[in-house]
Amino acid sequence: MHEITRRLVEFWRDDAKAEGMVPLHAPVFRGNEAAYVKDCIDTGWVSSVGAYVDRFEAMLAEATGVAHAVAVVNGTAALQVCLHLAGVRPGHEVVVPSLTFVATANAVSHCGAACRFIDVEERTLGLDPVRLDAHLTRHKDRPIKAVVVMHAFGQPADLDGLAEVCARHGVALVEDAAESLGSLYKGRHTGNHGLVASLSFNGNKIVTTGGGGAILTNDAALAKRAKHLTTTAKLPHPFRFDHDEVGWNYRLPNLNAALGCAQMEVLAEYVEHKRRLAERYDAAFAGLDGVRIFRETAEVRSNYWLTALLLDRPDRALIERVIEEASAVGIQCRPLWTPMHRLAMYGDCPRDALPVTESVADRLISLPSSPR
After folding, report:
1. With contact defined as beta carbons under 8 Å apart, do 52 and 36 qualify?
2. pLDDT value at residue 14
3. Considering 204, 239, 264, which residue would you say is the last residue of a domain?
4. Are residues 194 and 255 in the same domain?
5. In this structure, are 42 and 55 located in the same domain?
6. Do 245 and 314 have their domain in common?
7. Is pLDDT above 60 for 18?
8. Which residues lie below 8 Å from residue 48, measured CB to CB, with a gap of 6+?
């Protein structure tokens, strides 16, 4: 057994014995979830209209400090609509990190647009503003409509730098904040720095609605349009079904929103639990040569959605060995997502050199990070 695995086993020994498996990330339900969901069932308000949807959106806006939140069926749909609101259409191009979950690139494809991949900074795992500036300068003749920054593992990217570059080049900044609910950049919640932002409430996120997402914006007109488009573009009327454009049936059901309301009530507690867990991991792996826990930069406060272990040098064989050894004793770990440029459907997309992405992809292990 490798020393990394041995320390993981020691760290989770009591949990593994008691529960048989330490999952990578599992939801926690110990608040008002059952009562709120039962209320939906008892009243019959289970679909995409109901008081819990409105309440959930208000709670999201309050928690993030963003003026408007529109709840939708999942994070990918949220990001697709964000890109549409930013003016992305077929034939356009969108700059995205290759170091991301596939949903980021898929949302671009769903808009009929094409991805352009640039590299990330190792200190944040977010898009590198210097590389972004150089890329936009070199390709100013291309139909680049937007830049998507993804806050990997809940660690905010360099939002000031990226916002400045995007403003100078006249392209929209869109935040894929799927993993960063509860994370702050210079005291301000993620999702406030771009034109629009998306959240995810999948079962493995810091709070969950089972499946769900949200669009965030400080622009009242964009928020109104987001709600209209995601409600099949139906014109308000007590009984007529008139629609003024092609929209989507993307609104979050009241049943899911009820779950989300209960989860939002304990968001701050979950963030604190995750931050303490990251600190404990840091202490557990202190002094072990060749590895380190990926920690937040000085100007941010991360939710540590997933705590990540970074090797000093690429070693795919060691990553797989540790994951297999840990799994054999009931501890679930995962490698980084396959970078987008290595996937068949995105392999031909234009891209810059990606040395940091290539390196991190073969150095990172995600550790169990449930909020419990």
Report:
1. yes
2. 74
3. 264
4. yes
5. yes
6. no
7. no
8. 231, 249, 251, 252, 253, 254
> pTM of the prediction?
0.95
- pLDDT tier for residue 20 given thresholds of 50, 70 and 90: confident
Given a contact cutoff of 8 angstroms between Cβ atoms, the answer to whether 228 and 247 are in contact is yes
How big is the CA angle at 190 (ends 189 and 191), to the nearest 5 degrees?
115
Q: How far apart are CA 362 and CA 88, in angstroms?
A: 33
Domain that holds residue 14: 3-29+267-367
Q: Residue 198 class from Cβ within 10 Å (0-12 exposed, 13-18 middle, 19+ buried)? A: buried
For residues 166 and 145, is the Cβ–Cβ distance under 8 A? no
**Which residue, among 118, 107, 56, has the nearest Cα to 80 in the 3D structure?**
107
pLDDT-based confidence at residue 17 (cuts at 50, 70, 90): low
Domain boundary residue, one of 217, 235, 264: 264
- Strand pairing report for 68-72 and 213-217: antiparallel
Q: Tell me: do 47 and 130 sit in the same domain.
A: yes
* Pairing verdict, β 114-118 and 93-97: parallel
With 0-12 / 13-18 / 19 or more C-beta atoms within 10 angstroms meaning exposed / middle / buried, residue 33 is buried
Whether 148 and 210 map to the same domain: the answer is: yes
Residues forming beta bridges with residue 301, ordered by sequence position:
184
Mean pLDDT of 270-276: 97
pLDDT of residue 30: 92
Residue 220 lies in a domain: yes
Residue 308, classified by CB atoms within 10 Å of its CB into exposed (0-12), middle (13-18) or buried (19+), is buried
pLDDT classification of 48: cutoffs 50, 70, 90: confident
For the chain, the distance separating the N- and C-terminal CA atoms, rounded to the nearest angstrom, is: 27
Locate 366 and state its tokens.
């995600």
Token code pair at residue 188: 């301000």
One domain for residues 260 and 300: no
Angle at 300 between CA 206 and CA 24, to 5 degrees: 30
150 forms beta bridges with 176
Question: Both 66 and 161 in a single domain?
Answer: yes
Domain CATH for 65: 3.40.640.10
Amino acid, res. 131: R
